[in-house]
Each structure stands twice: as C-alpha cells, then as structure tokens.
Amino acid sequence: MPRSSQRLSSEVPAEAPGVSGPSPDVLVVGGGLIGLVTAWRAALRGLAVAVVDPEPGGGAARVAAGMLAAVTELHHGEQTLLALNLESARRYPGFAAELTEATGHDLGYRRCGTLAVALDADDRAHLRELHALQGRSGLDSEWLSGRECRRLEPMLAPGVRGGLRVDGDHQIDPRRLAAALVVACERAGVVLHRAWAERLTLAGDRATGVVTGDGTALTAGQVVLAAGSAGGRLAGVPDAVLPPVRPVKGQVVRLTVPKRHAPFLSRTVRAVVRGSQVYLVPRENGELVLGATSEELGWDTTVTAGGVYELLRDAHELVPGITELPLTETRAGLRPGSPDNAPLLGPTGVDGLLLATGHYRNGVLLTPVTGDVMADVLTTGVLPEEARPFSPRRFGAAALSEQPT
Ligand code: GLY
Fold it and tell me: CATH for 5-61+176-245+339-401?
C-alpha cells in the first residue's frame, strides 16, 4: 500500500477508475485478524460489509505465536491497556466457540497457561517486580522456585532460578484463527476484494472508499482502516488523521517436536534473556514456536542469520533440548506499534473514516474485543465504554470535525 505524496481533497481521483458493484455499508481496508474480525462482527449485526486485501488471512497472523498473555506481558504504565487485554481474554472462550460453531474450524485454542522464568539474579529481580505489579493489579500469578519450575516443565535448564506460573495466559494458533475468520466472513456475506488499497477517496471532508491497485473504485458508507502498520502510509488519508503507527519487526522460528519427544513442553515458557523477550509456544500438533525479535527497521522483513541466532541462543539457555528438534520455518513480520503501545479504535476527525490498528504486541489477544467494539461503533456511531481510552483522538491530531463517540 504505497503512500504517495499526493493528497486527495475530492472524490475525483487522478485517473478515472472503474467502479465496482453496489456500495456496502462498510469497507474494511486490511484483511488480517483485525480487519476480518471487524468485518465478521459487523456483518453479523446486519451491515453489508466488504474487505479489501490482496491476501485475506495473511499479514502478521502468519508470523505471530498466538500467546494470549495479558498477565505475563503486563508492563509498568500500561494499566489502561491491561483492562482491554483482560476484557478480550475474558471474551476469548465464547468468541472461539462461536467461530468454531460458524466454521467447523479447530482454532488450536489451548488453555494451557504460561511459565515465565528467570535465569539469573537480575532476571529474578525483574520477575519479582512483575509479580508485585501483577499483585497490585489484582492478577493471579504464583511464584515458584527453580525446582518447582522444573517439576512443572522438566525440559527447563537446570540453572532456572525461579518463575511465575500464570494459568490464565493461554494460546491460540493465529494461522487457524485467520483461516477461520476468512470462512466466517464469507459465510456471513462479506465480500472479499483481493486487491491492494492504493489510496483513500474523499468527497469534501467525508471518506468515501478506496481506489485499488488496478484502478477500481470501491465505495462504502463507512471505511475502516485496519491495515496494521501499512495503515500509517495509505495515500489520500489527510495528515491530521493518519494513524501514528510504525512497523516493529519480529522474527520467529518454528521447530517441530517429533512424537518420540512429546510431551516436550506442556505450556508456554518465556523469559527475558540479556534484555530480550524470548518465548516458546508449544502447539498440540507438535509445532514449537520460538519468538521473537523486536527491531525498529522500517519495512524490512528479511529473516537474518543474526535474528535467528539470537532466538536459538536465548531459547537454548532456557530449554537446551531444542537443539535436537527439526527447524521447519523462519519468518519475519511487522507489528503495528503506536506511541503508547495501545490500539487506535473508532472514529477519526474525517467523517466516515474509522481506525482499527496499532495493536502492537497484542493483536491476537485483542481480536475478540476489537471485533465487538468496531461492530458497535459501526452500527450505533458510539464507541463503547471499554474502548473510549483507545479513541484515535487521544493523539490530539484527529479532530478535523466532531463526531459522536
Ligand atoms: N506478543 C508477542 C510479540 O509481539 O512478540
């Protein structure tokens, strides 16, 4: 979705585009998890919805490990985000059951818990602080000695000095989730346009749709920009409402646990090693996902020897036995980072243009609540209570006109 320097001030594009079919109520730009869940939930509320994306179900969902880690990924200063993360975690069982019911797809949703461990005295001090913060935030987590950690997960390194057991942090397989959402959308009547959104179109101060890479004009009553980090550079979006999102690269390695080694790990295991997050997410089908680097390198998605080396080195310190496992895949993706690490949800200062982006490290976790929030605001024009702190207007610039929120 290249961003040109051109700014559109009217609905008339530079070249006369072809026009595609009748206008739906809602056009969602971006067919990753956030775009698809927005489309599905809005369609279930009776809206006519279309999605524009060259590959619906692709994007960061192909790379993400799928941890639903509201408690173990808690950070100082992110209490507001915690409330939304917990709300989404609370909705996950019902959401997953409904999606499976609608599609027949198994989503790889495992309520297996997470163990965050410490390898040295500094890590242990850091985890103790996290434990205290979790306690102050009313969250359930249990401190374990190194021996207790190894009793729970015998593959852990003998040097593990202690850890936090969090039974409420689960996992889902993001690839299965994305595939199911594509099917759910199709069954709910969502039209999928397999094309790039080249630029937003406006009529005066109102968003009217997009022009695709092949010059087709797609119009709709409301447009939702849900294109992850690419949403920050869609041509035609007025500067004042352009989402302040940036790509944060994450490299991930996938290993396979042969049946003779199973069970290898029974839950997600994670740690901070030399200041970097490393996690191992075991799936029921034998896949073991190791993630993830966090790199501010713009739009680069190269898998590097250094990135893979660091992940394997750090994961090996936690679980030495990983070196025996076949390495089956390496991949890099882009998290949509926002200035406060929280998503941007709801109307902007341009009539008819809404955002659902900036989910950063929590896109998979926030999928259920984002779908519900966006369906609410698209049908009623009012942003529900739980999403108000995440209005794009908190960044001050999105105020070209006033809309009810
Ligand atoms: N939530 C894990 C990650 O972004 O790496």
Answer: 3.50.50.60
Strand ranges, E, within 257-352: 268-273, 276-282, 287-291, 327-337, 344-347
Is the model's pTM score more than 0.90? yes
200 CA from centroid of ligand 1 (Å):
30
CATH of 114-169+247-337, one of 3.30.9.10, 3.80.10.10, 3.10.129.10, 3.40.50.300: 3.30.9.10
The number of helices, as runs of H, and strands, as runs of E, in the chain is 7, 20
Where is pLDDT greater, at 19 or 34?
34
Of 113, 126, 119, residue with least CA distance to 157: 119
Q: Name the residue at shortest CA distance from atom 2 of ligand 1.
A: 361
Distance from residue 64's CA to the centre of ligand 1 (Å): 7
Asked if pLDDT for residue 296 goes beyond 60, the answer is yes
Tell me what pLDDT residue 262 has.
Answer: 75
Mean pLDDT along residues 336-347: 97
pLDDT of residue 260: 83
Q: Where are the domains positioned within the chain?
A: 5-61+176-245+339-401, 114-169+247-337
What three-state secondary structure class fits 108? coil
Q: Which atom of ligand 1 is nearest to the CA of 65?
A: 2
67 within ligand 1 shell (Cβ under 6 A): yes
